[in-house]
Design brief:
alpha+beta
């Protein structure tokens, strides 16, 4: 096989893997109750291409997502591959976020517990547990809900708001999580919902919440000296395990 043919084959494999992982993430969001049926959006940059993004076409329920369903769209909302169209707010939010932040993966949801926290006047996530400590310093806050995203400049505004952070809390709206891989971004989204739920439940007791000290937070966030426990390895093992759950409970995403 020639070097050029090998490059083409490698790129095809990367795109196919991205489609499979994106379909899996959509279905996992149903099992984990992070979805709103056909609304909200998960996108992945097409490997090796500029201004090309993968998404489940508008109108498909997330539980039926398949790799073969994924379409390729650009910031203008044009469909380049596949059948179907990108929903307008997905086009206007996601394409600018990819372009301006450099994120490979952008996940946007209105998931219940994160939404509950974002409905509060003070929606700040507190580093009051080991899991929450991992998010300390990674969250940006957009405190001004401007309505439905019908124009690209809204996505550009959100990109400026998130900056170099990995999570954006959107007051009265939802959350955005970005990442280098689907595995990394989805694990962040999943863990985020759990820490938001824990905080809302703790707040419901009416008793003071004990926040961790900066020293403890730094110790929690310190990279592991054991490669078996590195964050990249944990992200990949988590997502592979969750895909095995899908294979058992909601198969067909890789078709």
């Amino acid at each position: 096989m020639s070097v050029q043919a090998l490059k083409i084959n490698t790129q095809f494999d990367a795109i196919q893997q991205a489609k499979i992982h994106l379909a899996a993430a959509n279905r996992l969001a149903v099992l984990d109750d992070l979805h709103e049926g056909i609304d909200n959006h998960f996108t992945v940059s097409v490997p090796g291409q500029i201004d090309r993004y993968l998404i489940l076409p508008f109108g498909r329920h997330w539980s039926e997502a398949r790799a073969s369903d994924m379409i390729v769209f650009n910031e203008k909302g044009e469909t380049f591959e596949g059948q179907g169209v990108v929903e307008l707010s997905a086009q206007c939010i996601h394409a600018p976020l990819h372009r301006l932040t450099g994120a490979n993966v952008v996940l946007h949801t209105h998931q219940n517990w994160a939404m509950a926290l974002n409905m509060l006047a003070d929606n700040r996530l507190l580093p009051a547990s080991q899991t929450a400590a991992f998010f300390h310093g990674l969250i940006a806050y957009d405190d001004t809900y401007t309505g439905v995203a019908n124009f690209v400049n809204e996505g550009e505004r959100l990109a400026a708001a998130i900056g170099d952070k990995k999570v954006l809390f959107m007051k009265n709206h939802g959350v955005v999580v970005v990442g280098d891989t689907v595995a990394q971004a989805y694990k962040r989204l999943y863990k985020l919902e759990r820490v938001c739920r824990a905080q809302v439940l703790a707040m419901s007791t009416g008793k003071p919440i004990q926040v961790l000290s900066e020293d403890v937070i730094a110790a929690v966030q310190k990279p592991s000296v054991d490669d078996r426990h590195s964050r990249d390895v944990r992200d990949q093992l988590f997502f592979e395990a969750m895909m095995r759950v899908l294979d058992r409970d909601l198969p067909g995403y890789a078709d």
